[in-house]
Write a structure and sequence with these properties.
mainly alpha; single chain
Length: 81
């Protein structure tokens, strides 16, 4: 799935919403593989570039950072929550 979504995203640059849809799917591919850093990057991109649901993206980003830090609530996690 990751290769397909990355290919779909990189084969065109006209529709940013299409990129965001691919980012959303990539987030969940990375989560299922417990790749928290990669999931964080995608969630941060969605938070910065998309207005669909800022609260959801912020919550997911903070959760992924929390998981990446082995359950430690860093200052960044607290700020995002």
């Amino acid at each position: 799935g990751i290769n397909t979504y990355e290919y779909a995203m990189y084969c065109q640059n006209d529709w940013k919403d299409f990129h965001h849809l691919a980012y959303w799917e990539l987030v969940w591919c990375r989560v299922l593989q417990r790749q928290w850093k990669e999931a964080s990057v995608m969630a941060q991109t969605l938070l910065d570039q998309n207005n669909w649901s800022k609260a959801t993206y912020c919550y997911l980003l903070s959760t992924f950072i929390f998981e990446e830090n082995n359950g430690v609530a860093t200052d960044e996690v607290v700020r995002l929550y």
